[in-house]
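Case study 2.
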Amino acid sequence: MTPQALVAAAIVVAMHVVGVAMLLALYRLLKGTSVPDRILALDTMFVAAIAQLMLFGMHLDTAVYFEAALIIAMLGFVGTVVLSKFVLRRDIVE
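Prediction:
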């Protein structure tokens, strides 16, 4: 087995593992016991989506997916901060 084939196989396996992590985070998002638990699950899904896009970009050997992952990272951060602030203060704008 060549090193390139080994790396390609590792990327595919990692994509499957991240997909399972996304399914588990989705379950926690839907069945969460509290609002902070659901916010944490949503943030975990953002991180897993970023990892999945990065792996998919490596698999296809293109840089377009890296830019999409960067946009999702920025939106995920802002979304998590806004939701957390709303849970703590019941107000988004001070």
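The mean pLDDT is 91.
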